[in-house]
Fold this sequence. Notes:
Elements: E1 12-19, H1 31-49, E2 53-57, H2 63-72, E3 79-88
Antiparallel strand pairs: 1-3, 2-3
Amino acid sequence: AGTQGWGQHVRNMAVITYDCNAYTDFRDFKAPIIDSSLFLMQLILLLQANEIGACVVNWGEDPARERQIRSMISIGDNESILCLMAFGIPEVKSKAPSSKKRKVCK
């Protein structure tokens, strides 16, 4: 899973889904994922503006894990899981990843 090394500290986890029945035209086959991702982006910005941290956890579509999540919470048969999102009040001593930038040579 994408939470190795920190997953044991997660207190809140949201499951972000999209309704497959909301898009009926074959040309819209990517629309649910795009629309759900735009929603997720705004949700993260909203949480951050309210001093709530969030971390998107990639969803690898493992059928066994999906059955496990579906058995724990109510997700309709018409819904697909886009991703998971850990969220909560960050610890003051939390570290943020960064990468040193190289100088640009002309």
